[in-house]
């Protein structure tokens, strides 16, 4: 039995994320949450989902709402609300506007569903995770963001394709910002259980090109089809399943770190974390020297943007 509330369920990502989550067998309640004015879209989405449940033989308690009371007793609340970027924009360009939206929802979640876990999707997700953490007042394990999980999946797929192996044979990880300064961890990449650096083909791997494809993947999709939808939604439902299933899988999410990566901390950023019913727990790691340098730079960037945004929020939305 588990209840998931999807805030921003009228958006492209929110809608398909809600649908993907509805396929998780032990999710028994879903609330499609939206803002006033969007009632018709929420009602239409609900009816469409119900048709699909009938076709699939799925039994689920599905509601839509614009009333914060309906958040109560959620196990997970997913925040998908906020403006997406368009051609020529960086995710960071969305920070100021989306921070207010995320801060408001974080306060609402704390007031109406104080024991839930918050999963942040809105971009720039590392900064928005810090905003949700502060404005919910929840402990750090109960607030995390989609982070570099999607980037890691993108890299996994490119590496599998290059080596012509099944995607499940590749384990890899990207840490740092879900954005320009992301850092691939080749030191933590294996193919068929073998360290990628120990494979002769590693020396001729077009690493920079591959990482560049990951870095630009979101914008490439946005330029071609308008929005990234299916990749994020599948990544979101993996995180939800991992948490609700108490699976203790280690996935790369945006989480608050104290000192887990080479004593670098006090920031929300993409790191490997163990996910279970209690939330996300960053795993202490040691990585290669060049990776530490990249991670440190990514942390500095996110730390600076986060403090600028917090200062702005302090003026407009004091706690
Ligand atoms: N972290 C990731 O990997 C990832 C992946 C995809 C999208 N995103 C982000 O998710 C967000 C949503 O993307 P989308 O493509 O679904 O966008 P969309 O425009 O389709 O949907 C936006 C949603 O936010 C809501 N919203 C907009 N302004 C609002 C406001 N002022 N107050 C309350 N709600 C508001 C809308 O009602 C809608 O539900 C964006 O910030 C996008 O960048 C993040
Ligand atoms: O690229 C974007 O703006 C959307 C999202 O962060 C993604 O990586 O798909």
TrEMBL record:
GO terms for biological process: lactate metabolic process; tricarboxylic acid cycle. Keywords: NAD, Oxidoreductase, Tricarboxylic acid cycle. The keyword Ribosomal protein does not apply. The keyword Oxidoreductase applies. Substrate binds at residues 85, 91, 123, 154. One of its GO terms (molecular function) is L-lactate dehydrogenase (NAD+) activity. InterPro entries: L-lactate/malate_DH (IPR001557), Lactate/malate_DH_C (IPR022383), Lactate/malate_DH_N (IPR001236), Lactate_DH/Glyco_Ohase_4_C (IPR015955), NAD(P)-bd_dom_sf (IPR036291). Residues 148-309 form the Lactate/malate dehydrogenase C-terminal domain. Its EC number is 1.1.1.37. NAD(+) binds at residues 8-14, 98, 121-123. Gene3D superfamilies: Lactate dehydrogenase/glycoside hydrolase, family 4, C-terminal (3.90.110.10), NAD(P)-binding Rossmann-like Domain (3.40.50.720). The active site is at 178 (proton acceptor). Catalyzes the reversible oxidation of malate to oxaloacetate. PANTHER family: L-2-HYDROXYCARBOXYLATE DEHYDROGENASE (NAD(P)(+)), L-LACTATE DEHYDROGENASE. NCBIfam families: PRK06223.1. Belongs to the LDH/MDH superfamily. This is malate dehydrogenase. It comes from Methanochimaera problematica.
């Amino acid at each position: 039995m588990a209840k998931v509330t999807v805030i921003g369920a009228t958006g492209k990502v929110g809608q398909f994320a809600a649908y993907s989550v509805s396929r998780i067998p032990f999710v028994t309640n879903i609330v499609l949450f939206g803002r006033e004015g969007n009632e018709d879209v929420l009602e239409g989405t609900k009816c469409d989902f119900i048709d699909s449940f009938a076709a699939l033989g799925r039994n689920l308690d599905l509601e839509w709402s614009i009333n914060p009371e309906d958040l109560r007793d959620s196990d997970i609340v997913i925040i998908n609300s906020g403006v997406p970027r368009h051609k020529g924009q960086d995710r960071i360009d969305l920070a100021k506007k989306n921070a207010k939206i995320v801060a408001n929802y974080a306060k609402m979640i704390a007031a109406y569903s104080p024991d839930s876990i918050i999963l942040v999707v809105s971009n720039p997700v590392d900064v928005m995770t810090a905003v949700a953490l502060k404005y919910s007042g929840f402990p750090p394990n109960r607030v995390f963001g989609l982070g570099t999980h999607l980037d890691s999946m993108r890299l996994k797929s490119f590496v599998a394709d290059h080596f012509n192996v099944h995607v499940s044979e590749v384990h890899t990880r990207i840490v740092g910002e879900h954005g320009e300064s992301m850092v691939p961890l080749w030191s933590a990449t294996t193919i068929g259980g073998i360290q990628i650096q120990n494979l002769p083909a590693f020396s001729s791997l077009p690493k920079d090109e591959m990482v560049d494809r990951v870095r630009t993947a979101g914008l490439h999709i946005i330029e071609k089809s308008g929005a990234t939808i299916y990749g994020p939604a599948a990544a979101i439902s993996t995180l939800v399943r991992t948490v609700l299933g108490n699976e203790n899988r280690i996935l790369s999410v945006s989480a608050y770190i104290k000192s887990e990566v080479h004593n670098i901390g006090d920031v929300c950023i993409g790191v490997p974390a163990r996910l279970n019913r209690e939330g996300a727990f960053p795993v202490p790691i040691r990585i290669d020297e060049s990776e530490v340098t990249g991670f440190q730079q990514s942390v500095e960037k996110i730390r600076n943007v986060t403090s600028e945004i917090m200062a702005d929020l302090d003026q407009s939305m004091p706690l």
